[in-house]
């Protein structure tokens, strides 16, 4: 398994809009991607930073998503983010049951 971790700095007072966009637009897009397994979003208590962690069956599946759909998702979130999100990738060696 493979993980993509995207860190985003949010504009002030946009946390609720960010959460709504993630639930209504981003997650449905992720679920349609081949090899997508799961997603988790962490948000700082002040609502200014969010980290999206998506889990993929393979590095290839994550890279295909990155090349084909990630730009559209960044565009959907551009009205609530202050700068370009940063991306880090990881191999997943443990998962919960």
Q: How would you portray this structure in words?
A:
- By secondary structure, the protein is α+β, with helices and mostly antiparallel strands.
- 36% of the residues lie in helices and 31% in strands.
- The protein has 3 helices and 4 strands.
- It has a 4-stranded antiparallel sheet.
- It starts with a strand and ends in a 6-residue tail after the last strand.
- The model has no long low-confidence stretch (mean pLDDT 93).
Strand order of the largest sheet: 2-3-1-4
CATH uppermost class: Alpha Beta
Note the run of SSEs as H and E.
EHEEHHE
Mean pLDDT: 93
Residue runs with pLDDT of under 50 for 5 or more positions: none
Counting helices, strands and paired strands, the structural category is alpha+beta
Second-tier CATH architecture: 2-Layer Sandwich
Largest sheet: 4 strands, antiparallel
- The end-to-end distance, rounded to whole angstroms, is 14 Å
CATH topology: Alpha-Beta Plaits
Figure out the total of helices. 3
Q: How much helical structure, as a percent, in the residues?
A: 25-40%
Shape: globular
Give the strand content. Answer: 25-35%
| Radius of gyration, whole Å | 13 Å
* Strands, count: 4
Number of domains: 1
